[in-house]
Specification:
Length: about 350
Amino acid sequence: MNTILVTGGAGYIGSHTCVELLEAGYQVVVIDNLCNSSQEALKRVETITCEGLAFYEVDVRDADALRGVFSSHNIDAVIHFAGLKAVGESVEFPERYYDNNVQGSKTLCQVMSEFGVKQLVFSSTASVYGFPSDDPIAENAQTQPAQPYGETKLAAERHLGELCRMDPHWRAISLRYFNPVGAHESGMIGEDPSGIPNNLTPFITQVAIGKREILQVWGDDWPTHDGTGVRDYIHVVDLARGHVKALERLAEQKGELIINLGTGRPYSVLEVHAAFEKAVGRDIPYEIKGRREGDIAIYFAEASLAKDLLGWQAELDIDAMACDAWRWQQMNPNGYRHA
Ligand code: NAD
Ligand code: WQD
């Protein structure tokens, strides 16, 4: 197996995974409609690795365009990152999320089947669990997504499960990511949110670089050790390496697997903030505000299945996440724009 189609490969996690794939000796073909990314990211992936990749500006919902890509390359497997991920936006525009995240995945699988390509690694999310827990959350936990975004990911997981049950040649691994943060150590690729960041760490680095005035901490009255929200933050490079391991597992397994990708090490907002002040070397202003609608107190991964089945575990700690995220922000104050 050596040619991998990466959908959404120009995005945050996709671009980091392309680096790891190329460095592992795979041939990489990327499709991306660039609705939330820049082709500049892929140019930098090629610079980092000194390897080339093929890129097509294609929407994963465009079956004919997909057929053109599959006709041009002998694709062995697919990693499917393409999708929309803004939880709040999914509440406002659920139909957009079902069309992109569910129909997009179904169209991709249909074309894959037409070309006899039946090995897929899917970008799922811990949002499928949807509930707070003081204990690590394992893959067999109840799923009850709180917003349409998580529902679309669960629907796509279930479709893959049906494919694997109907056709023994189909093999799929759905990876449920917790909270990806950080950037490649080169500082050349990283998280490039458009507009005001929803997520914690890009907001922190934008405050640190002076693009934002102050970090708003959404609540310090949560039932956690310091009152602020607790999550399982995982370095994006660890996450990317988990995908390479999942590809290797695909080659030797039958059917469907669902696996958490997290560290199992929870951190609070204030602990993350402290890690970034250490990385930045100065205070980062914050103020305590009320809770964010839809937020939950605490969730983090029971991460042992990935180690057992993929031979993978996260290796980079919160300080590496903070240092690498800060380096990216310093080198790219406006992300890939104005590159
Ligand atoms: P991202 O927005 O940076 O990357 C997604 C990429 O997919 C972008 O380049 C975008 O242009 C592309 N895309 C979107 N819709 C497309 C379509 N219809 N056709 C072709 N390309 C399309 O997001 P990310 O953080 O890299 O996330 C990648 C995947 O991982 C997503 O599916 C997301 O839901 C999932 N995920 C992300 C997180 C996170 O916190 N970042 C956590 C869990 C799961
Ligand atoms: C983390 C913590 C906030 C911003 C989201 C999606 C999830 C997944 C990962 C796609 C929480 C607090 C945040 C800020 C803050 N994405 N916070 N001030 O909500 O755990 O997960 O991203 O799959 O689906 O829901 O991540 O980074 O938004 O928040 O205090 O400006 O930081 O309350 O406790 P979240 P987050």
